[in-house]
Specification:
- This protein has 256 residues and is an alpha/beta fold.
- The protein has one domain: LmbE-like (Rossmann fold).
- The protein is 42% helix and 16% strand.
- The protein has helices at residues 15-29, 46-57, 88-102, 114-117, 119-135, 160-173, 202-210, 213-218, 220-227, 230-237; strands spanning 5-10, 33-40, 65-69, 106-110, 152-157, 194-197, 239-246.
- A seven-stranded mixed beta sheet has the order 3-2-1-4-5-7-6, with helices on both faces.
- Bound molecules: zinc ion.
């Protein structure tokens, strides 16, 4: 079987690398064509250029597709409306058109809780699932291209048992030692369908993350990750975990 075509849909520049960068680097190394859609930030902004660098570092030569909605936390990210406030049907049409043009076998996005509850992540999950289903339906959005059936969607999450302690350390280092008890990173292991060990490409993933230079200046979380001892950082970034959702009988495996 030829390598799959893969589409990764994430909310902000840096999410593609933190949550799914190792998987994409491994897929690219098998010859898979991997594209990234980022739902916030306008093309031409510094974070767009940083994202381009990050993808090249991961071995993905193609430029990211920016939907260009405003980041919920950064008004100057775009002149378009905030991601969570724009008309949903227009957003689904837009992403459906990209799915039909790119024809991915596999789609990666975030889990229903946006990994840790970020509204832009949750919205991106909903948008991605709606568009993955709509893409196959010929009566929906006929102007958005020929129907295309995605085989499987993989929802990235964090394993509480593998990475929970490392995330607690990040929270403590960024000055949030006693987070809201409702705030939790990740999923229990019995919910996780696929664990990808990305330690062999961890140096590549870490270099790609550091391409997001302005985010290291802005984000206490990224600076806290940089300050971790290497074994803790490996626990944090060395595994990427997914819930698998097949849209066709049998679906398609993530990696050979
Ligand atoms: Zn994000």
């Amino acid at each position: 079987m030829p390598p799959p075509r893969v589409l990764c849909v994430q909310a902000h520049p840096d999410d593609e690398t933190i949550w799914t960068g190792g998987t994409m680097a491994l897929l690219a190394a098998t010859g898979a064509v991997v594209d990234v859609v980022t739902t916030t930030w306008a093309p031409g902004k510094p974070r767009h250029a940083e994202l381009v660098d990050a993808l090249r570092t991961l071995g993905l030569p193609r430029a990211p597709i920016m939907l260009g909605y405003a980041d919920g936390g950064v008004a100057e990210s775009s002149t378009r409306p905030p991601l969570t406030a724009a008309p949903f049907d227009e957003q689904v049409t837009e992403l459906t058109a990209h799915i039909r043009a790119l024809r991915p076998d596999l789609v990666l996005t975030t889990d229903a809780f946006g990994i840790y509850g970020h509204p832009d992540h949750i919205h991106t999950h909903r948008l991605c699932l709606a568009a993955a289903e709509a893409a196959a339906e010929p009566h929906l959005y006929p102007e958005a291209g020929e129907p295309w059936q995605v085989s499987s969607v993989y929802l990235v999450t964090v394993s509480s048992s593998r990475s929970g302690r490392a995330w607690e350390e990040v929270m403590a280092a960024r000055g949030q030692a006693d987070p809201d008890p409702a705030f939790s990173f990740g999923s229990p292991d019995d919910r996780i369908d696929v664990v990808v060990d990305v330690r062999e490409v961890l140096d590549v993933k870490w270099r790609a993350l550091q391409a997001h230079r302005t985010e290291f200046e802005r984000s206490r979380t990224l600076r806290a990750i940089r300050a971790l001892d290497e074994p803790v950082r490996e626990a944090l970034l060395g595994w990427e975990c997914y819930l698998r959702r097949d849209l066709t009988a049998g679906g398609r495996a993530l990696l050979p």
